[in-house]
Amino acid sequence: MSGLWGPVEVALAKATETIPAPTALPGRTPYEMKWDGFRIAVVRTEDHTALWSRQGSRLDNQFPDLLAAAADQLPPGVVLDGEAVIWSGDRLDFSALLSRMSSSASSARRLANQQPASLVAFDVLAVAGQDVSGLVHHSDRGVQYRAVRYTGRLAEAEAVASVGSRGDSYDNAMAEAFNSLFKGELIHNPLKRGRGWQSINDVEIAVAEYVDWYNHRRVHGELAQRSPAEVEQTYWAARYDQ
Fold first, then answer.
1. Helix runs in 50-104, H state only
2. 105-114 and 64-73 are packed helices; what angle lies between their axes, rounded to 10 degrees?
3. Sequence-ordered list of residues with C-beta below 8 angstroms from that of 193, at least 6 positions apart, any chain
4. Which has the closest alpha carbon to 139: 154, 118, 125?
5. Is 4 in a helix, a strand, or coil?
6. Sign (positive/negative) of CA torsion 126, 131, 133, 136?
7. Distance between CA atoms of 38 and 94, rounded to whole angstroms?
8. Rounded CA gap, 199 and 7, in Å?
9. Is 34 a catalytic residue?
10. Which long-range contacts (CB under 8 A, 24 or more apart) does 211-215 make?
11. For residue 29, what pLDDT band results from cuts at 50, 70 and 90?
């Protein structure tokens, strides 16, 4: 952590050569839900409350509702790591988050009244002004897959780990990888967004174009420099030849 006041350095998932098998750790290998939100650190001191992005920029103006809630509900000396999300009915609304990020302070306040944000807090980095980031419970980190003490404690408590449909973490790892590419190649790419996304309609069209490019023309190292469509075509051709 860079400091209690910020900017706050948060733990990020890291690429590894291999992913442990489902039975590699006590209690099996768990994975976590991927929230469709923006990573955010909430800092509460005696005199200040602040929201920090993982890049080190302040997000107070974009999320005045979260700022007010933190000032009202958190005791001084607490730092939380989590993600800001916005619900639309029973689904997460990523487009609403994009609107917040590109809005002025006054517009963000209006949007907050119409569609308030929520904080999914998955780690406590400081308590009473003391750094406790070494204490891991449940967080959005790739290293969680190898946290022997974590999975061992789940086994001792006879708790069921949150895992994928096959009881492994491969589906989450694939989702994390795609989300990272999607945000880097499209959403946060200055060559794509120019001066900023102008409307939700612009984002929806761009996403549709990106998905088409990703599946049909983008080559992937994991697929021997081929596109997913090419790999699928080869697969079905081989099946029909049998």
1. 64-73, 94-101
2. 70
3. 187
4. 125
5. coil
6. negative
7. 9
8. 30
9. yes
10. 214/181
11. low
Burial (CB < 10 A; 0-12, 13-18, 19+), residue 169, is: buried
Q: Which of 135, 163, 172 is nearest to 28 (CA)?
A: 163
Alpha carbons 84 and 82: distance in angstroms, whole number = 7
Q: How far apart are CA 4 and CA 129, in angstroms?
A: 7
What is the sign of the dihedral through the CA atoms of 78, 79, 80 and 85? positive
Structure tokens of 101? 């990020």
User: What are 68-89's pLDDT values in tens digits?
Assistant: 999 999 998 899 988 899 998 8
Which 8-state DSSP code applies to residue 129?
T
The strand pair at 91-92 and 78-88 is best described as antiparallel
CB 154 within 8 A of CB 137: no
**How many angstroms separate the CA atoms of 107 and 125, rounded?**
31
Q: Which of 14, 34, 183, 192 is catalytic?
A: 34
pLDDT at 139: 38
pTM: 0.51
Per DSSP, helices labelled H in 102-184 are 105-114, 148-156, 170-182
